[in-house]
Each structure stands twice: as C-alpha cells, then as structure tokens.
Amino acid sequence: MNRNEPISRVASAALFDKSKTFFPGGVNSPVRAFKSVGGTPLFIQKGEGAYLWDEDGNKFIDFCCSWGPLIHGHNDPDVFEAIIDTLKNGASFGAPTKHENNLAEFILQRIPFIDKIRFVSSGTEAVMSAIRLARGYTGKSKIIKFDGCYHGHVDSLMVKAGSGLATFGTSSSAGVPEQLANETIVLPLNDSETLKNCISTYKEELACIIIEPIPANNGLILQDKSFLHEVREICSNHGILLIFDEVISGFRVAFGGAAELYNIKPDIVTYGKIIGGGLPVGAYGAKKEIMSFVSPDGPVYQAGTLSGNPVAMAAGLAQLKKCSETDFYTSQSEKTNSFINDINAFCLENNLAVELVAIGSIFWFSFNGKKRVRQASEIDADMSHFNKLHSFLLNNGVYLGPSGYEVGFVSSVHDEYLLKEASNIIKKGLVYCMN
C-alpha cells in the first residue's frame, strides 16, 4: 500500500459519529479517541493471533495487544477453551468458586514474597486498594509517588509535580480535591538525593512509597537497578511500605514481574492485565501480616461484586500456565531485542534521531535520540514524529497504541517472519516521518 493512500475508515467513522451521542468524546477510555494522533479512531471487529481487523476490513499486525494483557495474542486457543468451558456453567455468581482458588494457588506457589492475594476487577482498583491497605496498616496518611509513573485514575494518585523538585501533588484532574492530592508527595524518578531529603522531612507521616519499577505508561522510563534497591532499603529502614505497581510489568518481563527481574521484594504488589487472559481483572498481594488487615479479617474495607469472576479466573490460569513454561520469558525477550535491534541499526545507519527502547517484551519509540530515559522530564513533549509514524503504520498495516507516550508489546505469536515484516514497514515509516 502506498504510504500516502489512507486506509478506508468509512465504517469506523460512522460508528464514531454514533458513539459520540452515547459516550463523552465517543469513547469509554480517553486515549481511544485518537486525539493525540488525529483522525478517526478505528473500531475493531475481531482479532486472531497477532492480527486485528477493523470494521472496514483493514488488517493490522497488532503491537497494542489490548494494552498488554494479550501476551499470547488474540483468541489464544487454550484461553478461549477455558473461557467457553467455564461460561457454560454461568458468567457470574457473586459467590466463591474454585476458579479463584486455582488461579491464586498457581500465582502464590510461584511468587515467594506474597502469601495472600485479593482479586479485583481492574488495575486501578488494585492500586486504590493497595494504597488504602498501606494507610490502614501503618496508620499514616501521606504517600510518595514518582513523576512519570501512572497508577490508574485513583484520586490520590491523579497528581503531577509542581515547579520544585519535590512537591506536594497538584491535582491533574477536575473532581480531585486539592486536600486529597496534598497527601501525595511527587518526586522525580532516579533521584536518590531528593528522595533522601524528602524522607528526612516526612518519614513519620509516610504510609508508603508507590512506584512502577518499570514505568511503562509515560514512555518506557527504565530505572537504574541501584535506585530501585535504594528505595527498598529506605523503606525498610524507616518502616515505610514499598508498593510495586506491576499492573503492566507483572507477568510480562518475568513471571514475578520486575520484582523477580531485579530481585527486590516489595511489601505490597499490584497486578492486572495478563492475569485475566484479556478479561477485566486486577489483584493486590502481600505477606500474611499485612493482608490480615483486609476485610473481613481486618479493618481495611474493600469489596467487589465481580471480584474473582470465574470466567476471568479461568482465562487467567490458562494464560499463566503457558507463561510459566521453561524459557518462555527468555524467548520473548530475545525476539523482542532482535526486532528492535534491527530497527535501531537501520536508524543509526541512516542518521535517524530515534531509538527503540525495550525490556522483556515491552518496547517504546524514543524520538529524542536517548536510549535511556530515566525521568519524565527527559521525554520530548513534541510527538509530531510519532503522530506521523502512527498514521503511516496504520496505512501500511501495523497497529500501535494511539499515543507517543504509550509502549508497544510483543506477544508469543509474533513470530520471526511477522516481526521482520513489521520491522521493514516501521523502517520505511521512520524515514518518512523523520523527513
């Protein structure tokens, strides 16, 4: 397909016009509106393996993978079979089922730093519950988060840094009271000195530090391993709980997530995405002593009508069984690195100021020419190159999330041939968008 020949979006455009009469902005999650990249959002008809088809019949190699959960691609036969078999007995009961036990046992047997887990229905809900648990367990109210880490649309975490290096949060969404945001201290990533100074001032008031050990929702901001270990040490020394938000990185970079990859044991961990096999799910876990504070055992209330949904639990177990196979994560990392190294070598040879950054099977286009972006402030706010690339890739059959701040994902069904095909298209796109 010629790069200047836009794909047909007639069906998607009609559906989008209709959806705008039903939903704010025509969507049920903001980034789907394509406001960052422009044009009409694609309405997806179906997915199979590593491919997507939209309502106009356009076919795409998919690197969004439903924003990460589909580590085995669309319509994986084992996950599909588990869903159908479970669904035959009913979709939801609001009561315990063996499927919750089965998935919890499978996870807890393989992740040694948590004793108990609580399933919820989304990553945001998992983080919200983890923050409440940390406050309830410690009896303290203030928390530290880091600029560039996204933790879902939790009120106390919808904050951004002010003008100083270490600031109290300023609400970044209408409807979040400033007094609630003021319980959150926002620090720059990978800055040990600022963190130590903040701890010195507020250590008696801090319930927890929450961090994405692999920040992957505001670009891919890879941290120095030494910084993460230092955060762990500081928390241990001052009785502050460390929360790892592994909604994206959990079961993606290793079975035990970044905690396993970096050999760091958080006090509380949150999961999502992959553990539901593509269905809505989240979870948080910790040692028995901390989890004993969760209702009905303890005073920290948290509930969910659809928590532990049997269909999601069965889908998650089928998916995680495949993830637990020998060398699965090594294979995923190797082919992802081969994919991005091929593109990076091309960019270097052709003097293109862009580089793909990757960890595990997650990758990101860094258009400021830096391989290692360690703080949110280092990300080039000019996304014009990505927006142009995104349009080119859609017209040539490659689907990425519609924002330059979002990462891409490689699944187990992205084979060598398909990745080579995508690489060649991306190379042409980069030449086009950088000129």
Summarize the SSE layout with pairings.
Layout: H1 10-19, E1 44-48, E2 51-54, E3 59-62, H2 77-87, H3 98-108, E4 116-120, H4 123-138, E5 142-147, E6 159-160, E7 167-168, E8 170-171, H5 178-181, E9 184-188, H6 192-202, E10 206-211, H7 225-238, E11 241-245, H8 257-262, E12 268-272, E13 282-286, H9 288-291, H10 310-323, H11 328-349, E14 355-359, E15 362-366, H12 384-395, E16 398-399, E17 408-409, H13 416-433
Parallel strand pairs: 3-16, 5-9, 5-10, 10-11, 11-12
Antiparallel strand pairs: 1-2, 2-3, 4-13, 6-8, 7-9, 12-13, 14-15, 15-17
Helix pairs in contact: 2-10, 3-10, 6-7, 11-13, 12-13
Taking all Cα atoms into account, the compactness measure Rg is 22 Å
Give the overall form: globular
The CATH topology assignment of the largest domain is: Aspartate Aminotransferase, domain 2
CATH homology group of the largest domain: Type I PLP-dependent aspartate aminotransferase-like (Major domain)
The sequence of SSEs as H and E is HEEEHHEHEEEEHEHEHEHEEHHHEEHEEH
Strand order in space, largest sheet: 4-13-12-11-10-5-9-7
Mean pLDDT: 93
How many structural domains? 2
Low-confidence stretches: 161-168
